[in-house]
Amino acid sequence: MTPIWEFPCEWYRFATAKCYLRSRSQASISPWTGRRNVYGPHAQFWVIEVSMVNIDAPLSFQIEAFLERVGGSSGLIRMGSPMQPEPQWNMDIQGIDQAFADGTLWSDGTGWVEGMLPPKISVIAPEVHSAASAVLGGGLPLSTERVLRRGDIIEFRRGGIADETPSMHRVMMDAATNADGNTRVVFRPPLRKGLAAGDMAVLQRAQTVFRLSDDDQGQAGYTPPTTASLGFTLIENVL
After folding, report:
1. Does 195 reside within a domain?
2. Residue ranges of the chain with pLDDT lower than 50?
3. Same domain flag for 190 and 236
């Protein structure tokens, strides 16, 4: 089994970043009418494109060594979206400070944040390979609209363990919970592998498995003495 190296979260210091689902369809042109017929998408997979500028050593040396250890496009990298480390629900409430019961705050004038979604929840019912939705629950607020929202990113871990199966998905529709705190979430791409009840669904720092797009990615250019710029493109390792 090829080792999988996780790109450290503390290195997410990107000047520019893209993280998107790329679709691949098949097209044909009618020889009689010129009509373009499109079939698909036959595949959807994640792409990450990032650039890092004005990186000071020794961080630049560490990132170079990480990419060299991966071994170009032959190695596997776990990484998530640089722009979406958590659900939109959490982003909305992070700026809302809660006070103590007597209305006071901490000595620095701040309170604490409560009501955040948990970092991990559970799959409630099994789903088959190629399914494009799943029932999730366990720790979500009850009977609440838009708990998970269009554009959120989730990751599935079978048996609670991250493996080589690409398992990061984009939520396609707002999802409300029922009285039990469960919700059916519609997502893309469809499942690359089936799910069992009790499998983990990751809401914070969801990741998937990538390969570098080619062996020349991640080469640093230096402005003497030790300031570097580098960038790389990752393609999801669809099995």
Report:
1. yes
2. 98-100, 105-106, 109-113
3. no
Structure token digits, residue 163: 């493996």
Q: Note the pLDDT tens digit of each residue in 51-98.
A: 999 999 899 999 999 999 999 999 999 999 999 999 999 999 865 554
Closest CA to 171 of 157, 184, 181, 186: 186
Q: What are phi and psi of 171, to 5 degrees?
A: -70, 130
Q: Which domain holds residue 195?
A: 86-93+116-204
Residue with tokens 């592998």: 193
State how far the alpha carbon of 50 is from the alpha carbons of 7, 114, 218, in Å.
13, 33, 10
In the three-class reduction of DSSP (H, G, I as helix; E, B as strand; rest coil), residue 6 is classed as strand
170 with 155: CB under 8 angstroms? Answer: no
Same-domain pairing of 198 and 156 = yes
CATH of the domain at 18: 3.30.200.190
Q: Which residues contact 131 (CB under 8 A, 6 or more apart)?
A: 190, 191, 194, 195
